[in-house]
Amino acid sequence: MKYTVHGLQQEKLIEMGLDNDDALILSVIKEMYSSKKMEYQIMDGERFIWIDQGHLLEQIPIIGAQRSLKRRLKKLDEMKIIERRVVFEKDGVKGKFSYINITSKLDYLSEYIPWDKMSQGLGQSVPRVGTKCPNKDTPINDSINNISKDILCSTHVQRVIEEWNS
Fold first, then answer.
1. Would the pTM of this model clear 0.70, i.e. be above it?
2. Percentage of the chain surpassing pLDDT 90?
3. Would residue 105 count as lying in a domain?
4. Is residue 44 in a domain?
């Protein structure tokens, strides 16, 4: 099974009764929320971004009709994965403006479990053991194999930093 779908854990999506379209919507909302260019308001100490549902649907037309998008947003709000607020005036203009805040439940969907708790799959239930067989295709001399990995890593990192700063 593929571990993540649209950057969210597939197992947790299934556990919460969400499908691929829900994951896609949440992924796009999460991207929009992280953008500094998004228009937002602070409400009750939380940051809510303004989302034009027509624009959201233009970004992900595979979702279908706007009615379907609204229904899914309502479901995600009821599940407390997102929090929606409707404001009836924005910048002196009257209308219905939808603001969305992401909640810790969305963070839960994207948290990764540590490697040691994941199933290995593909018959790899035992830890891998390294071998002493040299790689016949390596361009590196055998003498370099005696240098510790820590020195190699720190040297490489230092070289990258120097190149970056030059």
1. no
2. 57
3. yes
4. yes
